[in-house]
Amino acid sequence: MEPTLDAEDVTVIIPTLEGDGESLRETVRSCLATRPFEILLVTTDAHRERLAKLVRSMLPTTRLRMFSVAQANKRRQMCRAIPEVRTRITVFADDDVSWPSTILQWVLAAFEEERVGGVGTCQRLRRAERPNIWTFLGAIYLERRNFEISATTHLDGGISCLSGRTAAYRTHILQDPAFMYGFTHEYWRKQYQLNADDDNFMTRWIFSHGWRIHVQYCKEVEVQTTLEDNPRFLKQCLRWSRSNWRSNLTSMFGERLIWRSV
User: Fold this and answer.
1) Is the pTM of this model over 0.85?
2) pLDDT under 50 in the chain at which residues?
3) What angle do CA 157, 219, 30 make, to 5 degrees?
4) Across the beta sheet with 10-15, what order do the strands follow?
């Protein structure tokens, strides 16, 4: 069967805070190497000129566009770019990842199944020049997560969270006004508006609207990323734990979809 999607059907959205830096440049270069239709970079107004400098340094490519928002807020940065997408597939990427050149071909293959609304990737820690106990803990955290999500999606289609480090979605799901509103107006305990947990919200939205999620677990979609390589790694773990508790409690006692799905 001939594929119905190719790289020209993909727009990549990269929210970033700093607007420039070697890590972001490596991310943009690796994404450009896969030849998507275009890459949309979103920073804050304060760092717009830094991002413009990065975009100019990537010339003569015409595949980059840049946007900004008034304040650092990942969800609003993502929503600033979503309406600008003109392709059938949108891929979100963090600003500290490196892609293999084969990633889009393998990610798009999963969308040949019509009910698949989101696709996840395999993730590994970028090898450090001087590894230590913190890099070891980060590496096994990502490896364990690869095993977990590939197993659960294979067994019953479930997944704890479709990680936002690199994830692909059907664009029309994201451009639904109901999604855009819900994404930027999520509250915890009806009091605290959430900026974090963006990938948890998107995972729940996909399932609650009748779509499936697929995970590609192979070398061709192995995304390399960075984590803290010092005691601040424990603070990262604490943030992840809080996000998971919030999302799991919302799933079980707020939306309650999981009980209807059993």
Assistant:
1) yes
2) 262
3) 105
4) 64-69, 38-44, 10-15, 89-93, 166-170, 116-120, 212-215
